[in-house]
Amino acid sequence: MSTHIAALILAGGKGTRLKALTRKIAKPAVSYGGKYRIIDFPLSNCANSGIRYVGVATQYESSVLNSYIGNGQNWGLNGVNSLCSVLSPKQTEEGSNWYRGTADAVYQNLDWLDGVDPEYVLILSGDHIYSCTYNAMLRKVEETDADCAIMVQEVPMEEASRFGILTADENDEVVEFKEKPKEPKSNLASMGIYIFNYRTLRSALVTDAKIANSSHDFGKDIIPNLLSAGKKIVVYRYSGYWKDVGTIDSLHAANMDLLLSGDASMNLYSVIESNRIYSEDNHARPQYIAKGASVSDCLINQGAQIYGAVDHCVISSDVVVEEGALAKNAVLMNGAHLGRNCRVYDAVVGPYSSIEEGTIVNGEKNGIALVANGRKADMK
């Protein structure tokens, strides 16, 4: 079997900054936008790009994520000429080895890539929110005969030290790469999205695996080593919506970006048909808005029951907002329950979490509050 391009999605991170939301599930399995999980975005992007061979490297609390991905049916990746594989850390006679870094996650799955035998490999993070296709990026690699292309986005200079920063010449060739530099020389930030010539990548990973003090990371090791070896790396500039939802604040903000009342650029209703985001249908009942309920500027998924008031909220399946309750500027995840006469402001309410009658959450509106007292994992 051989193919022109395969993709490997890195989805094994702990997501510790999301606190209790990732206590029982991996970060890419966290719900988003009322009906999606974060992993839906890179998988949909691959499907919309015509990439038929996709591996997903999972690790931390992966049971929900593995079950959700399954054979890739939700994204059309289970056909005769396609393949979606969940790739967990290997267990051998010597024991099991957790992925030691982003590069090691790919290295441990070289046998899967060898079986697919691609000319190019797309490496993606499984926990970013964006909608695009990778076809133009691939064409740039082919037309420039590059060993690698890195998708980049311009960020404010005051934020550049948070990212891997590249310096490129007038031909878009990378001349320098620094991971989270204290004094950045440019504002071209790596999005952690790469297309490699597979032979170049394979050789680099095998070499890196033998280096005892390597952190086995693309940004810290693989890219700098390729530059030192004189390999040709080009940038592919992306200007659309892209967000790393690594904190409670950024997850809340990304959800609010979906509401059409704001200045958001992530408008699901304007996404062209060929770039649609696909997700699992949990076959919930229709939503119910009771007589006397108040709803303003909200996304509400099927199965939700609204008896109280919701304003500027993103509401997932099977949420119940009781009579007299108020939620404002909030994200209510699957199965959340707001008791009578409670008040919830500027908050993320986790899956199956309950807020008791009369409770006030974040009444002083001090940042974004997290309520996560649900006792079961978000399986829907």
Properties at a glance:
380 residues, alpha/beta, Spore Coat Polysaccharide Biosynthesis Protein SpsA, Chain A, UDP N-Acetylglucosamine Acyltransferase, domain 1, 2 domains, 9-stranded mixed sheet, 8-stranded parallel sheet, 8 helices
What can you see in these coordinates?
The protein has helices spanning 40-48, 63-69, 102-107, 110-116, 135-144, 198-209, 218-228, 248-256; strands at 3-11, 31-32, 36-37, 53-58, 83-87, 91-92, 95-96, 118-125, 128-129, 148-154, 164-168, 174-179, 188-197, 233-237, 243-244, 288-289, 294-296, 299-300, 305-306, 309-311, 314-315, 320-321, 326-332, 337-338, 343-349, 354-355, 360-361, 369-371. With 380 residues, the protein is of the alpha/beta class. Strands 1, 4, 5, 8, 10, 11, 12, 13 and 14 form a nine-stranded mixed sheet that branches. 46% of the residues are buried.
Task: Output mean pLDDT.
Answer: 92
Largest sheet: 9 strands, mixed
CATH-level-2 architecture of the largest domain: Alpha-Beta Complex
Percent strand = 25-35%
Number of domains: 2
CATH superfamily of the largest domain: Spore Coat Polysaccharide Biosynthesis Protein SpsA, Chain A
Number of helices: 8
The best one-word shape is globular
What ranges have pLDDT less than 50 throughout 5 or more consecutive residues? none
- CA radius of gyration is 22 Å
Assign a percent range to the helix content.
10-25%
Give the distance, in angstroms, between the N- and C-terminal Cα atoms. 35 Å
- Please identify the oligomeric state: single chain
CATH domain class name of the largest domain: Alpha Beta
What is the fold-level CATH name, i.e. the topology of the largest domain? Spore Coat Polysaccharide Biosynthesis Protein SpsA, Chain A
Secondary structure class reads alpha/beta
Q: Care to count the β-strands?
A: 28
